[in-house]
Amino acid sequence: MKKILYLILLIIGGIIIGSLVAEKAAFSESMSWLAYSGGFEFPADKPLINLTIITITIGFSFKISIAQLIMILTAIFVNYKTAPKLFP
């Protein structure tokens, strides 16, 4: 259980650091490729259920940059190398 929580913590940290790197790299001419991102979304522009009294609208959006992907893979590698030593 501790190993899974450690992995989740590392991945969340990788996502946050990756987004910071991508924001800073967007302004750099030589590193702008790190800020390239792709994703998909299900927009919430039309209501899913409209019952006059209550309206339910659901939307979802997912976007990931190259820097975030690199940091997530780095976090998984760090977990692979350090988790057995931290949690025997």
What does this entry look like structurally?
This protein has 88 residues and is of the alpha+beta class. It has a domain at 1-36 and 61-81. Helix content is 51%, strand content 18%. The protein contains 2 helices and 4 strands, in the order H-E-E-E-E-H. The chain has a two-stranded antiparallel sheet. Strands 2-3 form a two-stranded antiparallel sheet. A hairpin with a 4-residue loop joins strand 2 (49-50) and strand 3. Helix 1 (2-25) runs antiparallel to helix 2. The protein is flat and about 60 Å long. The two termini are 12 Å apart. The mean pLDDT is 90.
Ranges where pLDDT stays below 50 over 5 or more residues in a row are none
Main sheet strand line-up: 1-4
Number of helical regions = 2
Radius of gyration: 19 Å
Summing up helix and strand content along with how strands pair, one would put the structural category as alpha+beta
Please summarize the sheet with the most strands: 2 strands, antiparallel
Order of helices and strands: HEEEEH
3D shape: flat
**Proportion of strand residues:** 15-25%
| Tally of strands | 4
Helix content: 40-55%
- What is the overall pLDDT average? 90
End-to-end Cα distance: 12 Å
